[in-house]
Amino acid sequence: MNFDLRNSVKNFPNSAGVYIMKDIAGDIIYIGKATSLKERVRSYFASYLPDKTRLQMSDVASIEYVETESPLEALILESNLIKKHDPKYNFKEKDDKSRIYVHITKEYFPRIHLLRATDLHELNGKNPILYGPFNSAHAIIEALELIRKVIPFRSCNVMPSKKCLYGYIGLCEAPCEKQISQDEYKKRIRSVRDFFEGKKIRVYSQLKNELKRASKNLEFEKAARIRDHLYALDHMKQMFVIKNEQSLPLFHRIEGYDISNISGIFATGSMVVFVDGMSEKSEYRKFKIKNTTGANDTAMMKEVLFRRFKNDWEYPDLILVDGGRGQVNVALTVLRSMNLNIPVVGLAKGPDRKKDELITSQILPRAEISLFKEVRDEAHRFAKGYYEKLHRKSIAG
Questions:
Q1: How far apart are CA 343 and CA 393, in angstroms?
Q2: Are residues 135 and 38 in the same domain?
Q3: Lowest mean pLDDT among 5-14, 18-27, 160-169, 363-372
């Protein structure tokens, strides 16, 4: 344990920002974002770390940071720095084919939407306008929603003949009804690009100038809209919150599993994925039980896990199963048969069915219990939804 390095974290601020880990040669080996730089980085010195995080920390000689005014700006800065420096321990950004980009089209009235890395080949033309990649779809969706409150933009696949809900609630300037000229709209898009390029001051200055012109020209309704946008910009730190990250280095990716059946009929299994504490619905998977008969939940769990790990999907840092010691043990059996060392957590209702009982395969921080419950509940919801779908389908017949 590098005690000098650990002590240096005590002087880190509680503000949002990006932390930069370097090796003894001064090369950048990892970049991450944080809502609280002190809490985020301090968690890397916990007593338990997954193998890949422990390997990473063995190479770290110094940790620097860059403060930002909001978690949103930390999210964007992290992406830009990773792309620039290509740190060797940012595995997710290098290997994950499902990473997310923000794409701005080159249409007459450009639209802004999210694009998976696997769909980049569908882009036409040269030099597409892309920002990213971003690790979490959930985080970048929230970021775009917030930016849209400051700079309204179009996101529809096909330009409609009349304005949609976004137009009515002020999140789009409704170019479909010619409520904004092409030149003015492209200025808006330029401002969105400024946001992703770290030029928030320019966006603020432009909005202030627009407000002055609108007020001078007695365009009171327009001035009121601009004031709302400035207010949203001023309060960005309060409006956009990346989830508490105190333990994110421990469990970057958590997979939750549950079984749903009644007496073994229409039995289904679910796999839900949480990345950095947020659900990634695009990576959810559902399993129709094929090889287990009767109401044998542990055997069904075993079947689901074997089928899951036969696929070439990213491995989790932790597996959570809805159940007790039996479900935990069967998960460990599957993992050991595949020579995988992944912690397993079970969440079971206690003897009185009123209190959750935590069963772990090794010592883990109990501070994670609220996140574990969220993963467990989501796995249960997803499995039950698939079971009900199969049941309805059988009745419809």
A1: 37
A2: no
A3: 363-372
Category of 277 on φ-ψ map: left (φ > 0), alpha (ψ -120 to 50) or beta: left
The CATH number linked to 9 is 3.40.1440.10
Q: Is residue 92 part of a domain?
A: no
Position 388 scores a pLDDT of: 66
- Token pair 């094929």: residue: 290
The mean predicted confidence, pLDDT, of the chain is: 80
**Strand-pair category, 344-349 with 356-360:** antiparallel
Whether residue 289 is found in the same domain as residue 259: yes
* CA 115 – CA 104 distance, rounded (Å): 10
282/378 same-domain check? yes
Task: Look up residue 321 and give its two tokens.
Answer: 């199963």
Maximum mean pLDDT: which of 198-207, 283-292, 351-360: 283-292
C-alpha 175/C-alpha 156 separation (Å) is 11
Alpha carbon distance 301, 316 (integer Å): 17
Burial class for 114, CB neighbours closer than 10 Å (0-12, 13-18, 19+): middle
The pLDDT tens digits for 95-110 are 555 678 889 998 889 9
Rg over CA atoms, the chain: 24
Please, what is the Cα angle at 52 between 298 and 335, to 5 degrees?
A: 20
**Domain range for 291:** 253-396
pLDDT tens, residue by residue, 49-97: 777 888 899 999 999 999 988 787 888 888 889 888 989 988 665 555 5
